[in-house]
Amino acid sequence: MTTVPGGVSVTLIDHNVDRFDPRERAPVDVTLPAEKRNPGGLGVFLTLKLVDSFSYDYHDRTSTITFSKRRGARDD
Q: If you average pLDDT over residues 23-36, what whole number do you get?
């Protein structure tokens, strides 16, 4: 985790893992009531909605996710 002008940047590195790009998950239908939704994916959905930037890299079984959030940035 590092500070960047106006916010923070976080890099998560995971070694010896299979490829998993969170941006490729099926969209979550948040209009459905909870009892009609399939479990899973809501945390990824919320994270991608709340951060200002998100990148994913996978090489030699190493996954690197970097995201940033600025103070005062509004979510759409």
A: 85
